[in-house]
Amino acid sequence: MQMTDSHNTRQDQGQTTKQAARGEEKLRGSEEKFREFLEHAPAAVAMFDREMRYVAVSRRWMQDFNLSGDIIGRSHYEVFPEIPERWREIHRRCLAGAVEKSDEDRFERADGSVDWVKWEVRPWFDSAGEIGGIGIFSEDITERKRAEEALRESERQLRMLADTVPQLVWMAEADGSIFWYNQRWYDYTGTTAQEMAGWGWQSVLDPKILPKVLEQWRSSLATGKPFEMEFPLRGADGRFRWFLTRVNPLPDSQGRIVRWFGTNTDIEESRRARQVAEESSRLKDEFLATVSHELRTPLTAIVGWTSLLKSKQLDEATTSHAIQVVDRNARSLTQLIENLLEVTRGQTGKIRLNPRPLELASVIQAALDAVLPAAEAKQIRLQTVLDPKAGPVTGDPDRLQQVVWNLLTNSIKFTPEGGRVQVSLQRMTSHVEITVSDTGCGISPEFLPFVFDRFRQADASSTRAHGGLGLGLSIVRHLTELHGGTVSAYSPGEEQGSTFVVRLPLTSRQAEIGGKAVPYPKTGYIAVDSSRILQGVKVLVVDDEPDTLELLRMVLELCGALVVTANSAAQALERLEKTDPDVLLSDIGMPGKDGFDLIREVRSLPPDRGGRVPAVALTAYTRAEDRTTTLAAGFDMHIPKPVQPADVVAAVANLTARISQ
Predict the structure, then answer these.
(1) Distance CA 496, CA 492 (A)
(2) Which of 498, 577, 626, 635 is the most exposed place for a label (fewest CB within 10 A)?
C-alpha cells in the first residue's frame, strides 16, 4: 500500500513538472510574440506600471517621440518632465480603472510642429486581477488630416465654380439632408439657406407630386443608386417650371457613400429645347468633372511638394526643382480661373474694349514671344509669314494678342513633338486674315461644327491625352466677334492637322485720319529688383492673411519702400495716424470690418490725419462692377488677385508719381 502511494506521488510530481515546463514554454512564446508585436506595430505602444515606469515600449513609440537608449524602468515623467497636467490627469483616471480615448487630438511637438494623433489609454490587469498599470496606444493621423483639408479646399473651389453654371446645383449628406445649394437655386426659388436646410426643399415642390419624389429619393438613399426624375419646382414668382433632377452618389475610397451631388436642369421649353437642355446638362456635368480634375491635378503637385519643402529634407537642387513645380502649377491654376472668369464676363457682356488703329504684325509677334518657351519645350517649329503692311485694323491690342495667343497655345498643345505651327498675316480686299495652322492631331468632321462652343472638347473622358477646360476657342470667337470679325476652323480630319482663320475688317479711311496706327509694344513691367524705385516711400499694407501680408511687405521693401503692416481694419486705423503713409494698400475681404469699411473711415478723417492718402484695393472680386464699387468707395486703384509683384510696385509708383506719365 505504501509503495503504491509513493509511486502515485512520483507520477503526480512528474506530471506537475511537465505542466510547468509547458507553461514556461508558452510564456516564453507569448513574450516573443509580444516583443515581435512591439517591434513591428504600426502604432506607438507603451506599457507602464502603477508608478508610471516603462514596462514595455514599441519601436514606433521610440521613433515618434524621438527617444533613444533603454528607457525600461524609467519614469514617464522623468523622460517627459514638461508633460501637460491634462495628460497626468488622464493617467490618474486610467490607473483608477477608466478608459480614455480620442479619435483625433492636436499634438504640438517640442520643435513647434503640430501633428494630429488618435490615441487610447486603458488599464491592464495582473494575474491577481488587480490594475498593474496602464497601456497607451497612439496613431499618427497627420497625413489623413492634411488630405481632408486639401479635399475640403477642393470642394470649396468646386462650389464656387458651380455658381457659374446655369443649373441648380446642390450637395447632400449620406442620409439625404441637403447642406449646400449654389446661388442659382436661391435666385430661382427665392428662398434662403435657413429655409432650405436639411429637407426644406420640399416646400418648393407640388404637394401632389411630393410623395412620389420622396419615395424614389428614399429608394436611392437605401440602395445607393443614382436618382433621376422630372418634376416641377416653384419659382420666386410662384409659378412652376419642370426640371430634370439628377443625383449621383459620391463614395469614399472604401466605396461607402458619403455625399450626394445633385443638379436640376430646366426642361420647360418645347421638345427641341428640352433636347438642347439635356445635352447642355451632360456637357456641364462633364465640365464640372473636368474642372475638378484640372484643379486637383496642380493642387496635388502644390500640396505634395509644399509638404516636402516643409520637411526641410531636400537638397538644394531638389528644393529649387520643387519651387519651380509649385510656381508652374500655381500659374496653371491662375490661368484656369482666369479662363472661367473670361467666359463669365463674355456671357454677361462685361468685356470692355479699348480700340485704336494698330498694326497686327506687332500684336502677333508679342503673342509669338509669349508661347516660344512652350514650343521649344516640344521642339515645335514656329514659322511666320507676316505682311507688315496688312493693316491697319481698329481693335484692342491686348484682346487681339489674347486671340492669337489662344490659337497658338491650342496648336502647340495638340501638335506632337517635332511638329510645326505656322502663322501668317495677309491683307485681302476688305479685311485682313490671321491664319494659324499646325501639323497636329486634327479635328474630326463630327466635332468640327462644335469646336468653338463653350465647354466642348473632342475628348472629355478621364483617359483624354490633353488637359484644359475647353474654353480657349470659345474665348477666341467671342473676342473676334466683338471686333466685328469672324473666325473659322478647317481640318481634313484626325491626325491631319488643323487651320484657324481670323478675319478682321480693315480700318476705314476716316479712322486712319483720326488716329495713326501704332505697333503694339511688347509687354513690359517694373522689375522687382534692386532698382529701388520706391526708395523712401512709406506704405501701409493691410491684409488678414499672414502669407499675403508677408509677400507684399517683401516685394515693396525690395524696391526700397518703408513698409508698415496691419492684419485688420482696426489695426490699420491705429497705424495710419502714427505712420502718415504715402500709400495705403488694403485687401477688401477681411473679417469684422472689411476694406470698404476701412476706406470709408479713412476718407472721413481730415487731410492732416491721413484722410486723403492714396489707396489701392486688392481683391479677389474681379468683375467690372466690383472695380466700380471699390473706386466709388474711395479707393484710387483696383488690383485683382492673384496679384503680380510688378503690378503692386507699379501701382504704388504711379500713385506717388515715381513713374513719369
Answers:
(1) 6
(2) 577
